[in-house]
Predict the structure.
Amino acid sequence: MTEQQYPIIECSSVTKRYGSRTALNGLNLTLSRGRIVGLLGPNGSGKTTLIKLLAGLLVPESGSIRVSGMPPSVETKKIVSYLPDKDYLNDWMKVTDLLAFFADFYADFDRQKALEMMQRLGLNPKDRLRSMSKGTREKVQLILVMSRNAELYLLDEPIGGVDPAARDYILNTIITNYSENAAVLLSTHLIYDIERVLEEVVFISNGQVMLQSSVDEIREQQGKSVDGLFREVFRC
Amino acid sequence: MLGKLFKYEMKSTARMFLLMYAAMLVVTLVNRISYAFLNREGPSNWMLDTLVGSVMLLYILSLAAVGILTMIFLVLRFYKNLIRAEGYLMFTLPVTPAQNLLSKLFTSVIWYFASALVMLVSILLMFPIGETMDFLRVILKNWGVISAQFQQVSGMNIYALLGLCLLTALVGTVTFVLQTYAAMSVGSLVNSYKLVCSVGVYIGIYMLQQVIMALILVGFGITLFETDLSVQQGFSLLQATLWTQILVESVLGAGFFLASNYILKRKLNLE
């Protein structure tokens, strides 16, 4: 098989504990390329843990993880574009410094694309991150991450802090920016806002996959929106 | 990739250090000018003398501050860039944790030596520059005689001794830096008060290290209380002590590196 024939994500029996707390409990998940997948679940269900494992920031206690057929490593980091739900960039840097940084380390970074998106959202590349508002910094982070021609985009709460107008632009950016060879896995609890871009959803609860389904299936067979189904499944 | 990491590491730290060195230079020059008033002719003036004394005190404090701030900057750089939020960026770059560690190690060692050099130059600037130059000129002119004499008295080649001292300083610095990294890596394993725990771990390792070093030196029969030594015996004792120290610190340094690398690779848990 060539690399592109492997599923983009394969997790089997993945368990991750933090001390005595189990975050992922024998999780199994396979995702194929060419889709935008929503990773949905209540707080503390293991969404961020799963994304961090796929990004190579955590190592599981047991089970196996493959990204495009490879265990998380330098090789997978070359093809994975990850957006954490944190302010994680050096704040003394100017946006232009960050563009240079990304271009230097990621062979798949498209600086032109990043500049276009920044212009569109009214960001000045000469500004320092420190002088920006929280929402603006989030936009910069998302633009940097989406300007890579990666095979897997891992977006942890990508639109939490940005205004609704920018939210639409960002969602469109996500839809239009990935190729059919790539996949997007994004976690959110703002399901209603993001539902229209999702093609597949994975519900996760107590560290296990509860449901994996295409969005069309949910709409046609169950006659519900993803948001509606989520509220039903995770009713408190 | 190591080269790129190193480049960014130097770039990110350079601003702080160059600013600090520039400030040190200014304080040095101010002190140099103010010091000249002490040797002036005429009646004593307590106000002027107090001022000169204060400037001198400020100078000495600044000199100490360069050393302390160098350490604080470099420790915080590692902590902020790898253990805190920026770790999300650094550990998802297509590089290994070892490359991250090495780029920071090289950068830190360079700054420690640069700070030592700045302090040395600053102290040299305190003496009249003409006299310092004359002194150096005399030494260089008579270098052949001096090194031959040294060889005769100590039984040791002067270059070998200087080289050994430099190697001891280099290995000592590398191990010290790696020890701070190991302490912060271990400290990162706890959920809260990471920095406080790191300091605790550092002190623990330090005490353990002192005990080990003392035991080894005693084991080799090297003690500080040997008094009836000839000059030549003294120098060979010095040599043996330095080599032992280099050996022990190399082993410890390797241990610190492996421990930090293991933790950052397998046990990292960014907040």
Notes: The first helix of chain B runs from residue 2 to 36. The interface with chain A takes residues 1, 4, 8, 12, 15, 81, 85-89, 91-96, 265-270 of chain B (CB under 8 Å). The mean pLDDT of chain B is 90.
